[in-house]
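Exercise: predict the fold of this chain.
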Amino acid sequence: MIRRICIIGASGKLGRYMVQHALDRGYDVVGVCREKSAEKLDAFKGRIAIVPGATNDREVIAQALAGCDGVLTVLVPWGVQQYATGTAQAVLDYAEPGARLVFSCGWHITRDGKDVYSWKLKTFVRIFGWLARLLRFADLDDQVEACRRVFASSTRWTVVRGSDLEEGESQGLPVWSCHVGDPILESNLTRRVDFAL
């Protein structure tokens, strides 16, 4: 039974919802976020432990994961220094044996190649990916490599691919399917608070 969880990327919009859901369910929570973002977690002061630092810093991750039997990781492809890949690899290397690992990433990730993407999404990913890499803002291929490593690991993992997210009151648990393009996922819109569940 999971008692203590680590949320990597805790200060982001999604991460803060995850922290609240975890506290509501009685978990001990350790949050990892960049030092300059730690103030975003002030609402949880005294209720969670915060390990400040880059999420791809192996020492930070090793410290944060000690004693955690669950890990929720938001994989972000910031910059062009393999931030998401470094984060995923550190989690895979330092998670407690048998820990439950959940990784959140974008729609463009595929494990078996059976996903069906709209021409709009493929065009967006191609253009945004090229432009983001050119500006050294982000590298979508970094998330692809991060998830490839997760898929190849022998850990207890789940990769959750996010749809378009919006703010608002909860509408309940989101629907899921194994593949992008399945009819049940047609709306492609989820409340962020529900995706954090």
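Check your answer against the key: The CA atoms of residues 116 and 182 lie 8 Å apart.
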